[in-house]
Design goal:
Layout: E1 13-17, E2 20-25, H1 37-58, H2 65-71, H3 98-109, E3 117-126, E4 131-140, E5 146-153, H4 155-162, E6 172-178, E7 182-188, H5 190-195, E8 201-208, H6 211-216, E9 229-231, E10 237-239, H7 252-255, H8 258-265, E11 271-279, E12 282-290, H9 294-299, E13 303-309, E14 315-321, E15 327-338, H10 344-349
Antiparallel strand pairs: 1-2, 3-4, 3-15, 4-5, 5-6, 6-7, 7-8, 9-10, 11-12, 12-13, 13-14, 14-15
């Protein structure tokens, strides 16, 4: 049986050793089947207590991603295929087959493998939490890695972040910069955006990230899409996520939609490829389906429609509907450019100074 690491709902476990953060796994209590509440709480409490010793007991070899893949109990059957392709019909359209579903599911779980540079922006709205923001991002991979994102919250959303009453809130902007080693997150004061006051930025946090070591130990990149979730004998699911090599957080909903893909698409019987459509200049596959259980409750979603870039797996557009048919969440890409030259001047033009 594969060796697993279990955590409480919504908590990500970063497996930390000298090499840095290597992988992430989380567990949803909602998947404990028909056990009563007391038994579920007992199992989760035991798992939490075991966290401190689980790494030592597993004897994981952290030498590189290949040895980690084996140490976590994955086998040749779990290896990610390298030859996934879309199957076209005679009319040159993509058919709703298991092979095509696996292709787009793999793309969404591994977007970082399918571009060198990214520039774009999108609008995000979540009706049930009154969260609304516009995101702008720029990413350059490779040896001279750099990333930038800017998140502009609308007034009511800013109040959620600051604890202010909605009527008192003003727009708020958060920016994040990553130069391949250090990530810096800043906040621009609200009055700067609304009153033209001299701009001041407050550093929220900084973090050191060793991308080379992260990439060398990103064993999840070797795991086939269908093996990225494992279930133990007690019904607890563990999820394996790729390393965040761009250092960005807010924009991952679009450019690295791993959590959404696993939550919405893991069961191929609950969704279909219903067509193809151009959105923001990108050729997208349209996916439509139904959602139930934990993710349905978490995202207030009973039905969904996703527009996914067929080349990169980036989520270009999404619509989520609750049980009453109301739009509960949406994401709309307003611009995106893939693999166009990104220079230091490109970042400067966005207001990012490394």
């Amino acid at each position: 049986m594969k060796k697993k690491i279990a955590l409480l709902t919504g908590i990500l476990l970063a497996i930390c050793v000298a090499a840095g953060t290597l992988a992430s796994a989380d567990t949803d209590a909602a998947y404990l089947g028909d056990l009563d509440a007391a038994e579920r709480e007992k199992i989760i409490a035991n798992k939490e207590a075991d966290q401190a010793v689980v790494l030592d007991s597993q004897g994981i070899d952290y030498t590189n991603k290949e040895t980690m893949f084996a140490s976590f109990g994955f086998t040749e059957d779990d290896l990610r295929p390298t030859d996934l392709t879309l199957v076209q019909t005679r009319s040159n359209s993509v058919s709703n087959t298991a092979a095509n579903k696996e292709y787009i599911y793999d793309r969404m779980l591994n977007t970082i493998d399918f571009y060198d540079t990214l520039q774009g922006s999108f609008e995000f709205s979540q009706a049930f939490s009154n969260l609304n923001y516009t995101a702008t991002y720029c990413v350059r991979s490779g040896e001279d890695r750099k990333s930038f994102e800017s998140i502009l919250y609308e007034p009511d959303s800013a109040s959620l972040l600051s604890g202010e009453a909605a009527s008192e809130a003003e727009p708020k902007k958060i920016t994040a910069y990553f130069d391949g080693q250090t990530k810096t997150e800043k906040e621009v004061a609200a009055n700067v955006l609304t009153r033209g006051t001299e701009e001041t930025e407050k550093v929220l946090r900084t973090a050191q990230i060793d991308v080379e070591e992260k990439e060398a130990c990103d064993f999840v990149s070797l795991i086939r899409a269908g093996s990225r979730v494992t279930t133990d004998e007690e019904g607890i699911n563990t999820y394996y996520y790729r390393e965040n090599l761009n250092g960005l957080g807010y924009c991952r909903e679009s450019i690295d939609p791993q959590e959404l893909a696993i939550g919405y698409l893991r069961n191929f019987d609950t969704w279909d490829i219903t067509g193809e459509e151009a959105v923001a200049g990108r050729n997208c596959l349209v996916l439509e389906g139904e959602l139930s259980g934990f993710y349905s409750e978490k995202r207030h979603t009973a039905e969904f429609k996703l527009w996914v870039d067929r080349e990169t797996g980036i989520l270009i557009k999404s619509e989520h509907y609750d049980a009453d048919g109301n739009l509960s969440e949406s994401l709309t890409t307003t611009s995106i450019t893939v693999n166009a030259p990104v220079t230091d001047e490109t970042f400067l033009a966005l207001g990012c100074e490394f």
